[in-house]
């Protein structure tokens, strides 16, 4: 019991700053609520506004990047269409030139064949005439000997 009396009579205990009353420990200080000063509130508001501005700037930057990427993709698509068109035009031009060249070769071959035919027929006619003349000469020679 002496122990309890001793505890009941002490008002504070060492560094703990607690008061003991009838076997209960009670805090020496009342709880304090943290109150922000107007300066701290202003600093928080500034920080909040700076974060908001930074987020807005990041959003605008992201939108700009997206717009530029979209624009680049559209331009690349247009360039591809132009290149496809140019390639098709070039292919048609090459096809037309090849067709024209083939037609020229064919015409030249036909012309050469016709010249050869005419030359051969002309020589054949000459030979035929020469043979006829020689045959007549032979007939005349035979007739004169008889």
Descriptive notes:
The chain is mainly α. It has helices spanning 2-9, 38-145, and strands at 18-21, 24-27. It has a two-stranded antiparallel sheet. β1 and β2 form a beta hairpin. The longest helix is centred in the middle third of the chain and has 108 residues, at 38-145. The chain starts with a helix and ends with a helix. The model is unreliable at 1-21 (pLDDT under 50).
What is the percent of helical residues? Answer: over 70%
List unreliable stretches of 5+ residues: 1-21
Physical arrangement of strands within the biggest beta sheet: 1-2
Beta-strand proportion: 5-15%
Average pLDDT reading:
79
How many DSSP E strands? 2
One letter per element, helices H and strands E, the order comes to: HEEH
User: What does the largest sheet look like?
Assistant: 2 strands, antiparallel
* Count of alpha and pi helical runs: 2
How big is the Rg? 60 Å
Shape: rod-shaped
N/C terminus separation: 192 Å
Task: Offer a concise description of the structure.
With 146 residues, the chain is mainly alpha-helical. It contains two helices and two strands, in the order H-E-E-H. 79% of the residues lie in helices and 5% in strands.
Can you give keywords for this protein?
146 residues, mainly alpha, two-stranded antiparallel ribbon, 2 helices, 2 strands, 79% helix, disordered N terminus
How are the SSEs placed, and which strands pair?
Blueprint lengths: L1 H8 L8 E4 L2 E4 L10 H108 L1
Antiparallel strand pairs: 1-2
